[in-house]
Amino acid sequence: MSVASWFGDRLPISGRQFQELTNEPVPYHLKRWWFALGGTPAYLFIVQIITGILLAFYYESSPSTAYQSVEHITTSVSFGWYIRSVHKWAATLMIVAVILHQMRVFFTGAYRNPREINWVVGMCLLFCTLMTGFTGYSLVYEQLSFWGATVGANISDTIPFVGGFLKRMMLAGDAYNQSTLSRFFVLHAAILPVTIVFLIATHIAVIRMQGVTEFQFKDEDDGTARTFNFFPDHLYTELIIGLVLMVVLSALATILPATLGPEANPLQTPEVIKPEWFFYVAFRWLKLFTGTAAVLSMGFIVFVMFAWPWIDNWIRKHTRFQEASVWIGILGVVTIIGLTLWEAFARH
Ligand code: HEM
Q1: Is pLDDT at 239 greater than 70 in this prediction?
Q2: Cβ–Cβ < 8 Å for 171, 183
Q3: Do residues 80 and 282 make contact, with C-beta atoms less than 8 angstroms apart?
Q4: Which atom of ligand 1 is nearest to the CA of 36?
Q5: 229 - beta bridge partners?
Q6: If you take atom 17 of ligand 1, which residue's CA is the nearest one?
Q7: Would the CB of 101 count as within 6 Å of ligand 1?
Q8: Which atom of ligand 1 is least distant from the CA of 115?
Q9: Which domains occur in the chain, in start order?
Q10: Distance (Å, rounded) from C-alpha 197 to C-alpha 42?
Q11: Which of 104, 161, 217, 297 is the most interior residue, by most CB within 10 Å?
Q12: Is the pTM value of this prediction over 0.85?
């Protein structure tokens, strides 16, 4: 009896149905990386899960042991420095890839009717990815991760009505205490990854139901087929991107390995407190407009980002600015880059 028929007897899955399921025709423009960028954060997320599980074997989430366990991983565990560095770089690249993918979706108008729901799912993915980065940064228990977490909790405290509750939820009490790190660890290693898995599954399911937006390019208008099969053609493209990314990740991890700053000292505030680079923009904004006004204005921007497909629809229906989204997008990107660079180079 062949292996195929042995499985066929026990799992009666029709080969034809399976082929139909995986042979989804993909529009030709997804041969360009810019248009297929969604697969890149998905790949990097898998790298994060694998390296994260390996790190979790050694990490100890208590303020008295966390820093020493990270030091042990970095200096004593076989290939610990490499796994830790790949985890750190894959996090950075995942955030970059999510932002680039969102920019592609935004500037091609691919969020418009009927894809508004998937834009909102994507926004939730963006926030979960950023929160995973924030909680991961706090786990190291260096001076900057400790003070970054403390400042983050104090900022959420200024949100009207729910701020105090959020701060207590984050810190497991009114101030940083013995239980805070394990709370960050549960968020970072369980709640947020599981939420991301659920969101990616929803995102992909909606894409499968709707298909991706079809664009026509001049150089493709030569009478040949305008689609190709997901399996194996598109999967090969994704595999090649994955291999290139693995080489890039390994090179970055080896040339610029993850470092370890001085251990957290709750009694000594560092001269300069900085979050990770992806929060520079929010941090600079909060410095520019202090207190509740800053938090409320940032909340408003986040609301506009979530509701953008409907706001854009309103602008296109009621005004003559059909491509306003492009100019608003350019303004947004320039502001984000400007504030990020400002925070990166400013001493305070
Ligand atoms: C972990 C994060 C994410 C993953 C893994 C992901 C994955 C994907 C994939 C595989 C596609 C198919 C086309 C492509 O590759 O570009 C896609 C399309 C899409 N994504 Fe994402 N995505 C993520 C985040 C986001 C974000 C942050 C947004 C926007 C706020 C977003 C909105 C969309 C929309 C609207 C489409 C449909 C595009 C079209 O029809 O052309 N996604 N996503």
Answers
A1: yes
A2: yes
A3: no
A4: 15
A5: 25
A6: 38
A7: yes
A8: 35
A9: 28-270 (1.20.810.10), 274-348 (1.10.287)
A10: 9
A11: 104
A12: yes
